[in-house]
Amino acid sequence: MKICMIGAGYVGLVSGACFADFGFEVICIDRDIDRIEKLNKEQVPIYEPGLDELIGKNTRAGRLSFTTELAKAAQGADLIFLAVGTPMRRNDGYADLSYIYEAARDLAPFLEDFTVITTKSTVPVGTSREIERQIRTIRPDADIAVCSNPEFLREGSAIEDFMKPDRVLIGHDDERAREKLEKLYATVADRGAPVMFVSRESAELAKYAANSFLATRIAFINEIADLCERVGADVQDVAKAIGSDSRIGPKFLQAGPGYGGSCFPKDVSALARTAREVRVPLTIVEQVWKSNNDRKIAMACKVEEAAGGSVRGKKIAVFGVTFKAETDDMRDAPSLVILPLLQDKGAVIAAHDPEGEENARKLLPGIEWHASPLAAAKDADIVLVLTEWNQYRQLDLDELRAVMKGDLLVDLRNIYEPRQVKGAGLKLCGIGRVCETQHN
User: Fold this and answer.
1) Which residues form the catalytic set?
2) 438 in a domain, yes or no?
3) How far is CA 21 from CA 119, 163, 183, 218, in A?
4) Domain limits at 284?
């Protein structure tokens, strides 16, 4: 089977490379000429562990190629995936579907024989049916089936998630499409992953519901962390205790500065908006959205309080700016709220991130960038941990203390043990535990 992947962004590249590794012919199309030229030279424009090797392997094997020509990509394709962006509209919080509808309309003239068109992008309920309506308006003769196949990939472990998924979810109402998609996912089915066939509406809603539920867990444990600080408990002990319950489980119970990334913020917002439109308000989901936004602001205040009530004139060394480790993604990262607020309060920011500096420079002006965490921490009054990169866990804290001017470590990811920090002569302010700060 030939697969056409419209969109060579994060979802399109990971999905296309993995499908090619399954043995299928895959051609990815994108309007970004520079991006396609780089990909044809095996230069991967995003950071995802293992993706450059996977793309290189399948490109050299002739199974994976890249183009800007839609006619070339769509010609003879059995399966066409729509993997274009559906960002959050800033005016109302709803998903911006203009790109995916435009891609569907552009595709219509090139359809041949029976073609399965499948949304990989995260889209609100009813989008697949609207895509079908728009294509049939342009090509009433087209023999198509429009399906929904949402991705459940975690940035930083996307290839493993694709190759060994918890489940594959497919929304359809055409048996011919089901046969093609069963063949496509036979490899993961053979590895024991359930391939679930449901209605299109169920598949579209399930993606939003899954991400909103995970976001709810994060918001919940973050609020529990605040309570722990007030009553003298340790949120990590609490999280371990409740996560040991088989009905709950331990995942997404790590307290921190708030969630970010390409999925949770926009999906929570879009789900809440969809529910309001059909007059079924999801008050829990709406509160999760508010709680997470408030938390990022509160984290800047936490740093200020830990510093004795003011950060004016103080140098803060920031370890990590991406929304999570193992990615260069800055979308809705907590750093985009926290660091400008600290700058507004008079702090001088010096930062290090193993992969995020290039993207962050455009979004965080006025920051000094350094090639190593110790270089960023030189003469710093405060070290602020925002992203849980492993190399920060492995730092020698005695060396860190030696290069700092001050002695305050604000760890918003709880990657350091209090005893270890204290032994290095540093004062620790973490998340969800009593802080030993400079003004105490």
Assistant:
1) 263
2) no
3) 20, 10, 14, 34
4) 208-290
270 in the same domain as 395: no
- How does DSSP classify residue 346? T
Res 437: pLDDT: 66
pLDDT at 439: 44
- Assigned domain for 440 exists: no
Sign of the CA dihedral 418, 422, 424, 428? positive
How far apart are alpha carbons 43 and 37 in whole angstroms? 8
Q: What is the DSSP string of 119-186?
A: E-S---TTHHHHHHHHHHHH-TT-EEEEEE----PPTTSHHHHHHS-S-EEEE-S-HHHHHHHHHHTH
- Residue 37 has a pLDDT of 95
- pTM score: 0.92
Which uninterrupted H or E stretch holds 115?
strand 114-119
**C-alpha Rg value of the chain to the nearest Å:** 24
**CA torsion angle 155 329 336 87 (round to 10):** -90
Mean pLDDT of 310-314: 98
Residue 191, number of CB atoms within 10 A of its CB: 10
In the numeric block, the tokens 């950071």 are attached to 47
d(CA 148, CA 267): 16
Q: Is residue 411 part of a domain?
A: yes
Domains: count for the chain? 3
What b/e string do you get for 305-340 counting C-beta neighbours within 10 Å, with b at 16 or more?
Answer: bbbeeebeebbbbbbbbbbbbbbbbbbbbbbbbbbb
- Mean pLDDT value across residues 44-64: 96
**The last residue of a domain, from among 198, 233, 260:** 198
Please say whether the beta carbons of 363 and 390 come within 8 A.
no
Conformational region of residue 366, where left means phi above 0, alpha means psi within -120 to 50, and beta covers everything else: left
- Name the DSSP class of 42: T
Residue 437 lies inside a defined structural domain of this protein = no
